[in-house]
Design a protein that fits this description.
- Its EC number is 2.7.7.6.
- One of its GO terms (molecular function) is DNA-directed RNA polymerase activity.
- There is one protein chain.
- The chain has eight helices and six strands.
- α3 crosses α4 and α3 packs across α5.
- Helices cover 36% and strands 19% of the residues.
Length: 176
């Protein structure tokens, strides 16, 4: 099993600005967008939301801002939307065997606890919707965000880097 001492305490690592959840189909999303659950999004972007609340004079200090987030005040979701508009996220499905195993997306808030993906981007991740999980990471530096937008956005990776064949092609259930 997966309960050994090494696996539990020594091999596991915590990574800031990251999360993990099951993926579900989001056919109404654009290829370059992913649906991020509110619960995960507020955790990932908390420091940016706090900064936004303080900058717009909606909170006087970090403690007040954290309290507003804890209480899930409506203004928090508005600030979160603003923050997310300018911030790509990286989605990764282990094992990452080639460069299409990690791609950048523009996040949008969704209800529930699962990450939503357009079905056409799944082939690059070798993912399907039978319980697969994906990790989400937030690139922090401006340089990392620019690199994610230019090189890693899913709509920029429509062809296989190895052989040049199309990656995003409809399959059986999409054609029905």
């Amino acid at each position: 099993g997966k309960e050994g001492r090494f696996r539990e305490t020594l091999l596991g690592k915590r990574v800031d600005y990251s999360g993990r959840s099951v993926i579900v189909v989001g056919p109404s999303l654009s290829l370059h967008r992913c649906g991020l659950p509110r619960e995960i999004a507020i955790e990932l972007f908390q420091t940016f939301v706090i900064r936004g609340l303080i900058r717009q004079h909606l909170a006087s200090n970090i403690g007040v801002a954290k309290s507003q987030i804890r209480e899930k005040e409506p203004i928090v979701w508005e600030i979160l939307q603003e923050v997310m508009q300018g911030h790509p996220v990286l989605l990764n499905r282990a094992p990452t065997l080639h460069r299409l195993g990690i791609q950048a997306f523009q996040p949008v808030l969704v209800e529930g606890r699962a990450i939503c993906l357009h079905p056409l981007v799944c082939k690059g991740f070798n993912a399907d919707f039978d319980g697969d999980q994906m990790a989400v990471h937030v690139p922090l530096s401006l340089e990392a965000q620019v690199e994610a937008r230019l090189l890693m956005f899913s709509h920029m990776n429509l062809l296989s880097p190895a052989i040049g064949d199309p990656i995003s092609v409809p399959t059986q259930d999409m054609l029905m």
